[in-house]
Every structure is written in structure tokens, then in C-alpha cells.
Design goal:
Layout: E1 15-19, E2 30-36, E3 39-44, E4 50-54, E5 61-65, H1 67-77, H2 81-89, H3 91-108, E6 112-113, H4 118-124, H5 130-139, E7 145-146, H6 149-164, E8 180-181, H7 204-227, H8 233-263, H9 271-275, H10 279-293, H11 298-309, H12 318-335, H13 346-356, E9 362-364, H14 367-377, E10 387-389, H15 394-406, H16 410-420
Parallel strand pairs: 5-6, 5-9, 9-10
Antiparallel strand pairs: 1-2, 2-3, 3-4, 7-8
Helix pairs in contact: 1-2, 1-3, 1-5, 2-3, 3-15, 6-10, 7-12, 8-10, 8-12, 10-11, 12-13, 12-14
């Protein structure tokens, strides 16, 4: 290389396993060029001709890993952190290492995805291990990520609005494929390319501020529940459910007033406020569009939308029932002085679990969230079928993973080795090890 040019060998992209080329009969030269969703391409290093092969359809299980799980999986592999973890966590360190090996293998077997979420990014960014945490949750994601929770909640609310209007959504109920980016049931390529925003450092302080604000609000709620007498789960649940719709209407009205005052010169112009929006405003705009399609005149649209927010129909949104039931469970604990102080991640944990749970086959969450969800599920009808695990039920999680791998036939395992090679399934336990100098 002379600084102006370099030599590129296209054969560098051809990977093992190599077989004999059926096109030019060269022995051991026909390698794998690419794997893409439903098939893979082999190319000969001798004649450079290609041949495409179809792969059977796969139906992967979706396991969501809460941030605490991502953090422990990262630490048990990190050269510095794993020493601290072994000294402090005892046998639990072995569990997290065993769990990583199993998850890594199942993702590579095309049996499982552990989608990433905006909660992973938001909770990782303010920490000193942001890059390591991101590398872990992206590695296990199977190139799949959940849509941001706000979008999913609005989609659920929109379907409830259509139901209230006596309509059905043209695409039917929301499925995991509607609320994720990437292909859940696609065969993975060996190479995964991730883009970076480049402006993430400046957002960490904003995320801390939002987290502190929501934590303060939740702590205030816990104090209120503790002082307010013992109302029982049903009363707390109904209070939480009934508060959502009217609050969204107030949020919308407040947004309209703030922007109106600014645009009419009654308040200083704020470019951030002008460009911002909120869930309530987006929902109202989508509801108005649905009403226009039905021929409802402009003057009657907002009164109808306000009526919907005050109705029982909005209370059927899955995210709302799950989150309100979990908060009601927390209220019961607080009312009998058994609720520990909420940590700074509790609000995010509950909103994330309640939003994503209907689209998962399983979840691994922390013990407290697991307890709240279990208490809520025993007392309210909640719309999810997922198996939910925590470290207190880790044996059940490992059994679930074992059963998943046992579903793969010997023929299927042989196909995976044929496409990816024998070394593909080796666990990537050296993810955070310093690379060896090739010199």
C-alpha cells in the first residue's frame, strides 16, 4: 500500500465451512459468502461463481432481558468486573456465566432472540459501562430491537379507539412483528453492523434528570399510599386505570395552550417547545384522522375524543392494565408498610415490562418486579401469555431454555453447522478481552 491505493481481495469475504465446488469441481473452495434471512450464498474461491440455497423457516422465541440481567451478563464476562462479582455474588456468578453460554448458543442456533429496547440504551448511557452494556444487549438481540414504548402504547390506544368506534384495525391485533425493528424469524448473518448516533454523551445528563424526576414522583406516590389507609388492590387498580384517560386529555389541552400562547406572542418563543410533542398530542392527531375517515366533521371530533378518554374502553389497553396492576400491587405493599423505597430504575422497569410483555414468549426481570407482577396477575385479568422469570426462579428459566434447545432436531443442528461451521456455537465469552497483538 503506497498511501494512494490498496489491494482488495474479494475472497476475504468467503468464509468456512468450505466444500467442493459443484461448478468448477475445485476441492474445498466453495465457502459461505453471505446469510440473509431465508437463505445463504456460497461462492467458490477458485472460479468466483455463486450458488444460492434456501433455508427452512424458523420460528424463534422472544425473551426480553431486563437491564439488571444485561448488567450481570456483562459483568460476569468483563475482566475486571467478574472478579468483583465472584467475590460478592458467590454462586450467582456461576449462574450468570451459565446463562450467557446458553443464551449465546440459542441465539446462534436461530431458536431465540433477546431484543434490545430503548430502556437498555437509556439505562446504560449514564453509566461508565455504556459501551460494554450496549455490546452485550446488541450481541444477544439477534439484530432485533423493540420499538420505543411510547409508540407501542399509542398503537394500543389507537386500536382501543377504533374498537370504541365499532371498527377493527385493518391489520388486526398488534403482534411482535408490528412492534420490532429487524426480522424476528430470519437466519442471522455472521456480520452485524451497528450505527452510532455520535451525540450520545450530551444526552446522559438529560436522562439522569428525567430519571430523577420520575423517581421523585414515584416516591411521592409510595408515601401517599402509605399514609392513605388500606384501600385494597381493586380500589388502587381502578384508581390508576381511571386516572390515565383524563390525564392524557389534560396533557393535550396543556400542550395546545402552551403552543397557542407562544404563537400569539403571549409567551416567549421557545424553539424546543415548538418542536416538541407528547404522547397525548400524537394520539389525538391519530384519533382525529380516524374520525375524518368516517366523515365526522371537525367541530365534533375533539368532544368525541374527550369522551373516549373518559370511557372504560381506554382501560382495556394491555400496557395500561399491566402497569396499573403493578402500581396497585405496590400501593398494597405501601399501605401495609411493606414497600421498600423504589429505586431509580423502578419506573422504567414497570413501564417497560408492561409495554413489552404482551409481545414476548418470556421475560427475565428483577425479583421485585417479578413479585409485583405475580401479585397483580393473581388479582386482575392481564393480557399476556409470557413466562416470567427472575433470579428467584432461575431454575425454571434454565429449564425453559433447555426445553427450547431440545426442540431442535439432529437434522436441524446439522444444518446450522453446515451453514455456519463447527466453531459458530462456541460461546463468545472473550467478548471483553483485549485483542491479542498479531505481531
Amino acid at each position: 500500500m503506497d498511501g494512494k491505493s490498496f489491494t482488495f481481495d474479494p475472497r476475504a469475504f468467503i468464509s468456512p465451512p468450505y466444500v467442493d465446488c459443484p461448478l468448477c469441481q475445485a476441492a474445498g473452495e466453495f465457502g459461505v459468502l453471505m446469510i440473509s434471512g431465508t437463505g445463504y450464498v456460497r461462492r467458490c474461491r477458485r472460479c468466483m461463481r455463486d450458488q444460492r440455497f434456501l433455508l427452512p423457516a424458523v420460528e424463534k422465541k422472544v425473551l426480553y432481558l431486563d437491564q439488571f440481567a444485561v448488567s450481570n451478563l456483562m459483568k460476569v464476562l468483563h475482566p475486571r468486573e467478574r472478579l468483583r462479582m465472584h467475590s460478592r455474588a458467590g454462586g450467582r456468578a456461576e449462574f450468570w456465566l451459565d446463562l450467557f453460554v446458553r443464551l449465546d448458543r440459542l441465539v446462534k442456533l436461530q431458536l431465540l432472540v433477546c431484543p434490545s429496547s430503548t430502556a437498555h440504551w437509556e439505562e446504560s448511557l449514564p453509566t461508565r459501562f455504556f459501551q460494554e452494556l450496549r455490546r452485550m444487549y446488541e450481541h444477544l438481540s439477534g439484530d432485533v430491537s423493540f420499538e420505543d414504548p411510547g409508540t407501542i402504547r399509542r398503537e394500543q390506544a389507537y386500536r382501543q379507539f377504533l374498537t370504541w368506534q365499532g371498527e377493527e384495525h385493518p391489520h388486526g391485533p398488534l403482534t411482535v412483528h408490528d412492534v420490532t425493528h429487524g426480522v424476528v424469524n430470519g437466519w442471522l448473518d455472521r456480520i452485524s453492523v451497528q450505527a452510532r448516533l455520535g451525540c450520545e454523551d450530551g444526552l446522559a445528563d438529560d436522562l439522569r434528570m428525567v430519571r430523577d424526576r420520575t423517581h421523585t414522583r414515584l416516591a411521592t406516590c409510595v408515601d401517599t399510599w402509605a399514609r392513605g389507609g388500606r384501600l385494597g388492590f381493586e380500589r388502587y387498580f381502578e384508581q390508576e386505570l381511571s386516572a390515565y384517560g383524563p390525564q392524557q386529555w389534560r396533557n393535550y389541552c396543556q400542550r395546545v395552550v402552551e403552543v397557542g400562547q407562544m404563537m400569539n406572542g403571549l409567551a416567549p418563543f421557545d424553539p424546543d417547545l415548538a418542536a416538541a410533542t407528547n404522547d397525548a398530542e400524537i394520539m389525538v392527531m391519530s384519533f382525529k384522522a380516524a374520525l375524518r375517515k368516517r366523515g365526522i366533521i371537525e367541530d365534533t371530533q375533539l368532544p368525541k375524543i374527550r369522551e373516549f378518554f373518559a370511557s372504560d374502553q381506554i382501560k382495556e389497553a394491555p400496557f395500561l392494565r399491566i402497569s396499573c396492576a403493578m402500581f396497585a400491587a405496590m400501593a398494597v405493599e405501601a399501605s401495609v408498610n411493606q414497600a421498600p423505597r423504589p429505586d431509580r430504575g423502578m419506573w422504567t422497569d414497570i413501564t417497560t415490562v408492561s409495554t413489552l410483555l404482551p409481545y414476548c414468549d418470556a421475560m427475565l426481570i428483577d425479583n421485585r418486579c417479578h413479585r409485583l407482577l405475580g401479585f397483580a396477575t393473581d388479582r386482575a385479568v392481564l393480557d399476556y401469555d409470557a413466562a416470567v422469570f427472575s433470579t428467584d426462579s432461575r431454575d425454571k428459566l434454565l429449564a425453559w431454555l433447555e426445553e427450547l434447545e431440545a426442540s431442535a432436531t439432529p437434522e436441524y443442528l446439522g444444518l446450522v453447522e453446515q451453514v455456519y461451521g463447527a466453531s459458530w456455537l462456541e460461546p463468545y465469552s472473550s467478548m471483553f478481552e483485549a485483542p491479542t497483538d498479531p505481531r
